[in-house]
TrEMBL record:
It comes from Guopingia tenuis. This is Uncharacterized protein. It comes from the Bacteria.
Length: 123
């Protein structure tokens, strides 16, 4: 299936920056799984403290997860979940349960990447 090119130049996002953001979003599921794995590992070890690097990795995962989900909520509102399915799993607009047309959805998707870019630059 041919990927629809996003016109993000108007937001100051180059095609290489877009690829970086796209890869960052695609890792969202891996980061959720990684955070859960760290939390499960230490949940039953009440008297032990996690290693410093695990604490740092968990904090980075939380920060990245929050960043992506906040950007999706700000851009998509009630459609945040479907927006994340689209950008993470490449589910096409036609297969999403969204209350808007194609043009509106892709405008919201561009806004998502703009917001995410701003959040990453500020982080």
């Amino acid at each position: 299936m041919r990927k629809r090119p996003l016109r993000l130049e108007e937001y100051g996002i180059s095609k290489y920056r877009f690829r970086e953001l796209e890869s960052f979003v695609r890792q969202h599921g891996e980061k959720i799984a990684g955070l859960q794995k760290i939390q499960e590992k230490w949940a039953w070890r009440k008297n032990m403290r996690p290693e410093r690097r695990e604490l740092l990795r968990a904090a980075q995962y939380r920060r990245d997860i929050r960043m992506v989900e906040e950007a999706a909520r700000q851009a998509g509102g009630v459609m945040a979940g479907e927006l994340l399915r689209n950008v993470m799993e490449e589910v096409p607009w036609e297969r999403l349960d969204v209350p808007c047309g194609r043009e509106t959805f892709y405008r919201i998707r561009r806004q998502f990447y703009r917001i995410l870019d701003e959040k990453k630059r500020g982080a």
